[in-house]
Amino acid sequence: MKVTWLVIVFCLVANFGFHGRKLLRTVYGHGCPPVQWNRGEVPGYCSVFNTACMDHGSRIVIHDEKYQIDNVRRENTPSLPVVLWNMPIRLNAFPDALGGWQPGFNVHVRPASKMEPTPPLRHPSWSNCTLPVVLLVDYPYNYKLFVIKALTQIDQMFRVRSLAPGKDATLVLATPAGLALEPYHAVLLSPYSRRPLVTMSELGRRGMEGTPADWSGEGVRVHCFSQLLACKLDQQDGTAPQAAASAVLSHLGPSVPADPLGFGSAATDPHVLRVVVEERTASWRSIRNVRDILRACEEADARGFAAGPFTRIVCKALPAPYDSSPPATGTVDPSSPGAVAFRSALGAVSSAHLFVAAAGSSGAHAFFMNPDPARGGAGLVEVRPCGWGTEHAGRADGAQDAMAAQLQRGADTIRFFAYNVEDAAQCSPPDYQSQLLANRADLQLQQQTAAHPFQPKAPARYSPEELLVRDQHLTLRPGPLLAMLRHAAALLGDKAAYGAARDGGKLHGYAVAEGLLLGPAGLTQAALPALKNGPELIKVP
Q1: Strand runs (DSSP E) across 464-507, as ranges?
Q2: Distance between CA atoms of 427 and 436, rounded to whole angstroms?
Q3: pTM for the complete prediction?
Q4: Exposed/middle/buried for 466, CB within 10 Å: 0-12, 13-18, 19+?
């Protein structure tokens, strides 16, 4: 009889696992392989939770005995840093940064309770076939910040460190307030898991236990996991954005069209300078005369173009309609219109030598350019409205997401040039200016504070004055812009010449009424007149 009881107790402990005074049932995957991951490669900005459940989109319920309330020797319940975010605005009349700041989004962590609201939480079965990696990223709906903060870190974690060599971890984006994924979220993170990206809301959705789920190792929805990781991403030790972008393009392969804008035979001719000009339809920060610029390129090509190794020039417009990227309700279908449009945009900039874009989020497309010197190199020409590159140069050049600094992280393989417009005739107010000036006292522009040790210091928010300067529309005179394109093109294939131009303060062009003034970064408007009679001025009608 004693032997029989011993066998029974042994079987109970083997099947359920003995944790202090509690028995927890453990399921090691029926018919699905457990996720193999390298615990030693987990970076310091990630937290690992054992025996944890996801509930209702923003709650992690931990069953680990060391955190339970009835354990008198319990440890403090862990917490996670907040996610800072702007509310993605429904209409394209206002930028998200215009008073769209929301209270920090919290992912709540709590120990298990006897009052759990659902059967999976009351009677958990621990999955080790699904390893959720929850990604907390500030401003997840800002495309450029997502590339810089999230993509670079994920590339470091999963490609460089091989955190999950089998690419079978489930990446979970902590979208605030249950919001959906943008197509670019899923496309950018697709190289790092063979399972689709999912939101926290989808992972913890109640009342759908056992229904199909392609994001889980079991193939059906599960809520409780042997391990769950949560990581606050902020470009701590990530790869250079260009390196991460290159990994994305390698993974996407032929799904990125090679010539979506129709360069034709010019797409492979090393002597034809291919220029892509961003064409925005928004009510702020748009280049309003893209068609005039394209015609000027045609005329310059017909007259005879020369810049460095290039003897011809062809310019194309990159449209960016807002309705091309409807949000996904669950996981993002790679064939959805938004995903197809995003991959086409990547193909467009990859086909160009120079990408001309207004200062802002879409400049991040430049990370996906092809810098191969054999095909002529690549560079970004960032167009800045009046005052943004001069009076507000600290913002334009010094912010974490400033393209000059980010491209330098990639050893200048993709060149950076700034085109600072300082001719009032080429700038006009954003459409929202009158409403902002009339209602600015009602805007909630208070600054968030950083409290959690993993929470990065929040950047200073834009003041109304800064917004009005940054978001001006642009009607560019084609002559000075073409002069800037010639200057940039001559430096694309020669890194030494590019370095000399930087040292000599010749990477910034200032579009003034007299033409193009080449100079260092951060010239003030007051300093420009004194330089207009010097050799730095290229007079262009």
Answers
A1: 473-474
A2: 18
A3: 0.91
A4: middle
Predicted pLDDT of residue 11: 36
Length of the chain: 541
pLDDT-wise least confident of 53-57, 187-191, 365-369: 53-57
Counting Cβ atoms within 10 Å, is residue 46 exposed (0-12), middle (13-18) or buried (19+)?
buried
Largest CA distance in the chain: 105
For the chain, how big is the Rg over CA atoms in Å? 27
Are 54 and 206 contacting, i.e. CB atoms less than 8 angstroms apart? no
Q: What is the pLDDT of residue 22?
A: 37
- Within 13 A of 100's CA, how many CA atoms are on the CB side? 18
- Cβ(54)–Cβ(223) under 8 Å? yes
Q: Are 331 and 196 in contact (CB under 8 A)?
A: yes
Residue ranges per structural domain of the chain:
30-233, 267-327+335-432+472-539
- Calculate the CA dihedral of residues 399, 401, 406, 407 and round it to 10 degrees: -110
Sequence-distant (6+) residues with CB within 8 A of 388 are 359, 395, 396, 420, 469, 470, 472
Q: Which residues contact 480 (CB under 8 A, 6 or more apart)?
A: 509, 511, 512, 515, 516, 538, 540
Instruction: Select 267-327+335-432+472-539's CATH number: 3.30.2320, 3.40.50, 3.30.420, 2.60.40.
Output: 3.40.50
Closest CA to 478 of 271, 272, 277, 320: 277
Least reliable range by pLDDT among 8-22, 101-115, 150-164 = 8-22
Two structure tokens written together for 75: 């440890």
Q: What confidence score (pLDDT) does residue 60 get? A: 97
